[in-house]
Amino acid sequence: MEIFGYFKFKEGLNLCSDCLNKEYDIEISKYKGKLLTPLLIENFKTDKDNIREELLPPKSKFNVLDKKLNWGMPYSWPEGDSNVSRLLIELNIKEFNFSSKSKLKLEGEIENWINRFRINLFAYDYNIDTPALMEKKSTNDIFEFFELTGNDNVHKKYFEGTIPLVTINISDAIKECDLRNVINATSLNKKLVFEYQLLKDANNELMLENYRKSILDSATALEVSLTNAIIRDLEINETLLFHFLKKYNGLKQKRELLKLTKNTLPKLDYEKGIDKPRNEAIHSGKVPTKTEARNAYIIAKKAIDYLITGKFE
């Protein structure tokens, strides 16, 4: 049995042109398949007016459904970087007598895969001056899957579902290597490292105007990253390491301890930009301004990108 379907991005996902017309190996639960991206029209680069032409559906044998859908639009010429609105998934189910219980489980696995994929995209949000990924719990987006029956041109709806809408406004298009990393991490059931999970929360709270919570999450993300880098790279025995971490237990102290390792931090105003508003939020209950919360987020993200060795775990 073969099933196929799509999931969409309400605001679209900006992809570099070398991400288009590609198929990537994926695995959802124990089932292998492909994730396919749409493509530019033929001879796109020969005419600037082609930037007004919608993307074509992915090259797939399930072409009856594809003709009815909008897959996105290019936004740069002649490069062809595009805002992609949908991605196609094909799965090959090799089991006979696929039970209703197995079907229900597969629905949940597909939903989980899509959610992990969209969250994992946060690892490649280069536009740190404008936090770009936000979950809207009260709004749902849809995914639809179909079953191939008999031949390539006959299909019936297999199942559909709704998932919390994730608005993604990454201004710099995602590179092909980064998209591949996100897909591979998602298929391996990997998630963002804890620092990035905290940063994502800080980002979300910033966009929801919960500035105090955003600063606390940004500061915690930076402290976790500092601690992990010290544990990873400070060449002393575990007893001394535990003693040092207990003694150097604040952001400023951990930055000093980090100097004993091979790591460096970007030159930023940590004390004014993140230490002071974080301490005021904790000890005085002060609510920071939007500018303070945004600045703390930017500082934390820049520093964390210097320190981490991998984006997924």
Task: Explain the layout of strands and helices.
Layout lengths: L1 E14 L7 E6 L2 E6 L26 H4 L5 E3 L7 E11 L7 H21 L12 E16 L6 E14 L7 H12 L6 H14 L3 H23 L4 H10 L3 H8 L11 H15 L5 H18 L6
Antiparallel strand pairs: 1-5, 1-6, 2-3, 3-5, 4-5, 6-7
Helix pairs in contact: 2-3, 4-5, 4-9, 5-7, 5-8, 5-9, 8-9
Q: Total number of helical segments?
A: 9
> What general form does the structure show?
globular
CA-atom Rg in angstroms: 23 Å
Number of strands: 7
What class do helices, strands and sheet pairing give?
alpha+beta
Salient structural properties:
313 residues; alpha+beta; 2 domains; 22% strand; globular
Provide an overview of this structure.
The protein is of the alpha+beta class. It folds into two domains: 2-190, no CATH class; 204-307, no CATH class. Helix content is 40%, strand content 22%. The chain has nine helices and seven strands, in the order βββαββαββααααααα. A hairpin with a 6-residue loop joins β6 and β7. α2 (100-120) packs antiparallel against α3 (176-187) and α5 (211-233) packs parallel to α9. The model is unreliable at 126-140 (pLDDT under 50).
What's the short version?
By secondary structure, the protein is of the alpha+beta class. The chain contains 9 helices and 7 strands; from the N terminus they run βββαββαββααααααα.
